[in-house]
Amino acid sequence: MTKQNEYDSVRRMKIAICDDEPVFLKRIYHYFWQQPDCTVECFLSADALLDNYRAGERYDVLFLDIVMSPINGIDVAKSIREYDQSVILVFFTAYLEYAPAGYEVNAFRYLLKPVAEDDIFRVIKDIRAKLENATLLIKTPECELLLHVQDLQHVAADNKHSVLHYKGDIITLRKGLNELEMLLPAASFFRIHRKYIVNLAYVREFDEAHVTLDSGRTFPVSRRNIKQFRHAIKTYIEGVPHL
């Protein structure tokens, strides 16, 4: 089941909730009706959520129950971290002794069951603040830079280096594109080609073979990525408020 409401000032957060208790899942889902800046998908099994990730789906935030069968929430998070280092993880738990395990997957917060509506309100408020101020710490030979990810237009591979196009500046890093792809918010950035990652906020137009950004730069889209790119841009646009 999915939920989507209109919001007039910010891009909606894309959220997935995974819990194998139907009654609890339904209750949490309904709490989000008071959160108009969210688009929510619910999963009764970890396998269904993981299948979505393997198919290329990405989210801003995941809410996971720790105690699920046959796969517990921590192991689900470890699998997802192989695809996505940037997604924010929030765990539901009835047992605080599980909390230390969450640090292995960089958990944002734990919500103790039974979860109240105010708990959801508070964590969404804190997550929104985190996303709006998302930064990357980039180390160069000269210094360390803090970059606001919303101002990063695209990244291009150059042999074993990555070239970041940021606010009109060009920054070259001794990092491969695979490593950067894992660090960037997957709901906002997409790898269209083995050599290019684009910020979906800057996409002006595209066809079956090319993507053009607001800067006027045009990049190739690999044939195997075009279907997932169409889905990614559609999902991103659905989360952007319309005038």
Question: Can you walk me through this structure?
Answer:
The protein has helices spanning 22-31, 46-54, 73-81, 99-102, 117-132, 177-183, 226-238; strands at residues 2-4, 13-18, 38-43, 61-65, 88-93, 109-112, 135-139, 144-148, 152-158, 161-166, 169-173, 189-193, 196-199, 203-206, 210-213, 218-220. The protein has 243 residues and is α/β, with parallel strands linked by helices. The chain has 2 domains: 2-132, Rossmann fold (3-Layer(aba) Sandwich), CATH 3.40.50.2300; 135-238, Beta Barrel (OB fold (Dihydrolipoamide Acetyltransferase, E2P)). The strands form 4 sheets. The chain has a 6-stranded mixed sheet, sandwiched between helices. The longest helix is centred in the middle third of the chain and has 16 residues, at 117-132. The chain is globular. The protein starts with a strand and ends in a 5-residue tail after the last helix. Residues 1-9 have low confidence and may be disordered.
